[in-house]
């Protein structure tokens, strides 16, 4: 039975590798807007959950694979059953979205108590010998990721994840430039090879020491307490587009802030989408704030995110207009970003355009601040 299962997995993996484009090609071929999913998905669509997932061009988290053994933190091989299940899921998702990219998280900073045996040397401990507390919301405990043996296991897990054929790369959370993390990052890069992807959650930090090894930053939670303002967000986005390793897979996430409007804070959703479209070729997400007592990063899917623009007409180089707005051209239309604290902008075109926000057609549109507009050419 085990031999037949392994053979089935091998044949499935061979078929996957032969049929699909590389991650580099998929990233280059996608159209815009381009949205990502961080762990948890959109909840407002009455459709097959896989169809909703496939609306996103990049996913990071776990798709359903499992490590062999009783403890995830000690696993070095994925179970054949879970590889088969998840490869089949990947195939279905790529049929719906041929340009989708899949990134697997490898835990290193902290983990649930079930991640390792109680007496494991991989737990970081207080002087008392008790496990050191990690992420409060999850009830996690810190891991001793500075230990060479831990780094070795993390690198083996990263290699196993990408060699399974399920994932195009690896995600590392809670990231900043320091000596211990750089050692871990170097080991992961060496383990997975030069053509696989690495995504780091640096929040609002710039990480020049890590940039040579990683393809993108997950810039989490814009509008939370650790972000200062819109200009700082744009600066981080531009820095990541300029400095991260190619192919770049930068992911910018904003949270709703208005507790009455919540996910209906659509002007902000449009603004961060337009900011990402004008300043980068990255992926965007507008989601629930983490402090809610619900799974993190849940969100709605907005019609504004449907593929309407086609491909970019050139590299990201936002044009700053005389009225303080920024614009960028795409195959099928123009994106305008009106930044925070700017005046209401009057957007004029020589030919009739259609506003994606409300479906209105015309030659002239008003755009509040902060807000963003997508104005499509007539077909």
Descriptive report:
- This protein is α/β, with parallel strands linked by helices.
- It has 2 domains: about 1-105 and about 150-310, TIM Barrel; about 110-145, no CATH class.
- The chain has 9 helices and 16 strands.
- The protein has helices at about 1-20, 25-30, 50-55, 80-95, 150-165, 180-190, 210, 230-245, 265-280; strands at about 35-40, 60, 100-105, 110, 140, 170, 195-200, 215-220, 250-255, 285, 320, 325-330, 335-340, 345-355, 360-365, 370-375.
- The strands form 3 sheets. The protein has an 8-stranded parallel beta sheet.
- Helix 3 links the parallel strand 1 (about 35-40) and strand 2 (about 60).
- Helix 1 packs parallel to helix 4.
- The longest helix has 18 residues, at about 1-20.
- The protein is globular.
- The model has no long low-confidence stretch (mean pLDDT about 95).
Question: Characteristics of this structure?
Answer:
single chain, 379 residues, alpha/beta, TIM Barrel, 2 domains, eight-stranded parallel sheet, six-stranded antiparallel sheet, 16 strands
């Amino acid at each position: 039975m085990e031999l037949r299962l392994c053979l089935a997995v091998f044949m499935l993996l061979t078929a996957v590798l032969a049929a699909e484009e590389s991650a580099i090609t998929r990233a280059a071929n996608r159209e815009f807007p381009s949205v990502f999913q961080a762990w948890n998905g959109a909840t407002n669509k009455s459709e097959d959950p896989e169809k909703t997932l496939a609306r996103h061009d990049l996913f990071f988290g776990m798709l359903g694979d499992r490590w062999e053994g009783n403890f995830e933190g000690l696993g070095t091989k994925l179970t054949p059953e879970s590889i088969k299940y998840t490869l089949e899921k990947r195939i279905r998702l790529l049929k719906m979205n041929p340009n989708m990219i899949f990134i697997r998280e490898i835990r290193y900073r902290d983990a649930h108590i079930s991640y390792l045996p109680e007496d494991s040397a991989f737990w970081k401990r207080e002087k008392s010998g008790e496990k050191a507390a990690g992420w409060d919301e999850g009830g996690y405990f810190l891991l001793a990721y500075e230990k060479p043996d831990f780094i070795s296991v993390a690198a083996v897990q990263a290699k196993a994840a990408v060699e399974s054929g399920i994932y195009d790369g690896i995600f590392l959370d809670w990231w900043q430039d320091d000596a211990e993390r750089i050692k871990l990052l170097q080991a992961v890069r060496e383990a997975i090879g030069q053509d696989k992807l690495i995504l780091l959650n640096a929040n609002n930090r710039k990480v020049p020491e890590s940039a040579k090894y990683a393809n993108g930053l997950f810039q989490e939670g814009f509008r939370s307490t650790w972000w200062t303002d819109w200009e700082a967000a744009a600066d981080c986005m531009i820095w990541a587009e300029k400095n991260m390793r190619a192919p770049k897979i930068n992911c910018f996430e904003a949270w709703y802030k208005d507790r009455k409007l919540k996910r209906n804070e659509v002007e902000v959703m449009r603004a961060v989408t337009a900011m990402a479209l004008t300043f980068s070729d990255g992926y965007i997400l507008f989601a629930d704030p983490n402090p809610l007592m619900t799974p993190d990063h849940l969100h709605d899917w907005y019609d504004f995110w449907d593929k309407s623009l086609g491909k970019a007409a050139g590299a990201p180089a936002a044009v700053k207009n005389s009225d303080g707005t920024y614009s960028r051209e795409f195959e099928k239309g123009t994106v305008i970003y009106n930044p925070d604290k700017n005046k209401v902008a009057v957007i004029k075109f020589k030919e009739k355009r259609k506003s994606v926000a409300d479906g209105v057609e015309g030659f002239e549109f008003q755009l509040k601040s902060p807000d963003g507009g997508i104005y499509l050419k007539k077909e």
